[in-house]
Every structure is written in C-alpha cells, then in structure tokens.
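Entry 14. Structure prediction run on the chain below.
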Amino acid sequence: MILVTVGNATQGFPRLLDAVDRIAGEGAFGGDAILVQSGHTRDFRPRHCPHQAFFPMEEFIALVHEASLVIAHAGAGTLFHVFGAGKIPVVMRPGAAHRGAAPPRLRPTCPPPRRLARRVPRPTVP
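Output returned:
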C-alpha cells in the first residue's frame, strides 16, 4: 500500500493530491493500493484512489508502518512517524503559493532543496 499524507496543516496541498490522483489514473503505481490522507485540502475529489481527511493517530501510525511507500508533505510530525517506522519518504514541499502573502521575514529560512541535499548524507540502504 502507498500512503499519501498532507498532515494537519490548515492550508491543504491540492497540488500534491491532484498529481497523485492523476498519475494513479495513468497506472504509475502499478497494482499497488493507494490511500490518501487529504487533511484540510478542500474540494479534493479523487477519481483513482480512496481518501480520508484524517485518521486517528494510532491508525495513522499503523498505516505508516504498513505502507511500502509514504509520499508526504514536509511536516515535522509526519516525518517523525515515517522515520520512526524506518522508512524513507518521498517528500513534496509546498511551494511559494502555499506560504501565501507572508512577509519575507516570516517565510521559512530553510535553504532551497538543492543546497540542503548537499548537506544531508544519503542513507545506506541494505
């Protein structure tokens, strides 16, 4: 099972969810079941994968452990559980539109992904 999660951020993440639904319809995930936790993403009406806005925490943790792949937003809580399950997630960071009209001084100070990738060592996969 492939778990797609956008956590509990109030902004939603339609760009990620719509893309997953579209490529699921194109057969990109083969025969793997896909389950989407859509959070506060309004008007998300998938045609190719089941979804639920939220799961109770115990169920979410069990789904993370069960998943063969986790596709997630860059939320700390989600990543905590995914790494705790010994998984390496596919992380899709919300873009500038996600941050809305926040003044530059309030925007995240994390370096761009290309620069960050140079700092984080690649994990050794057995």
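The first strand starts at residue 2 and ends at 5.
Filed with the rest of this week's runs.
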